[in-house]
């Protein structure tokens, strides 16, 4: 990776939700390589343990993980308390946990709707609320990065629940940025297009797509920006998409 030997985040601590695979794992890996202490979460113990082992093998800092479902505000609170114990004060939050259910509106079940909205939108709010409670008045600065999707501005058939959650995340991220830009809290909403992951059963791996590692490098790029500058929203697309 481009910044393998640069530990510019040494002494800083980050929490990455959904960090056991795909984009979240790549972000956690980039952060650890840059010297940050990192806590990840996922919904399954085996996946969390495996990701922590893999990250620890190459990390330049402490890595820890906890099982947590961001749909539950109590579980989110326990996750942040775990991060406090393992790392100390958090400086960076990356909200990456997300799900996608792709059905026509008529075929969407109530459970699928609720799971999608609660994970992709309510879960982000719960995490941001915990993070802001730790940052405001207590830390010199902090950074919250929300991983959204271009589906948050471009609707497509078969994605009513997913589009609704990501459109909501776009509005939430912008409002939170405006709420706290004078509190030394920077907020960035990253909206990737097609990423080469197994996000859903219908996802097809392809080398023309954005690599998860590219999103990790974008996160590092944002964290390198001077405090006076805020990239509030960032759209990311494959440079040569499939025609």
Task: Write up this protein.
It is a single chain. The two termini are about 30 Å apart. This protein is about 40% helix and about 15% strand. It is an alpha/beta fold and about 240 residues long. It has one domain: 3-Layer(aba) Sandwich (Rossmann fold), CATH 3.40.50. It is globular and about 50 Å long. A seven-stranded parallel sheet has the order 3-2-1-4-5-6-7, with helices on both faces.
Tell me the layout of helices and strands.
Layout: E1 13-16, H1 22-33, E2 37-42, H2 45-58, E3 63-67, H3 73-87, E4 92-95, H4 110-135, E5 142-147, H5 160-180, E6 185-192, H6 212-224, E7 233-236
Parallel strand pairs: 1-2, 1-4, 2-3, 4-5, 5-6, 6-7
Helix pairs in contact: 1-6, 3-4, 4-5
Helix content: 40-55%
CATH superfamily grouping: NAD(P)-binding Rossmann-like Domain
Strand tally is 7
CATH fold-level name: Rossmann fold
* Average residue-wise pLDDT: 93
Shape: globular
Please summarize what this structure is:
This protein has helices spanning 22-33, 45-58, 73-87, 110-135, 160-180, 212-224; strands at residues 13-16, 37-42, 63-67, 92-95, 142-147, 185-192, 233-236. With 243 residues, the chain is α/β, with parallel strands linked by helices. It has one domain (13-201, 215-236): NAD(P)-binding Rossmann-like Domain (Rossmann fold, 3-Layer(aba) Sandwich).
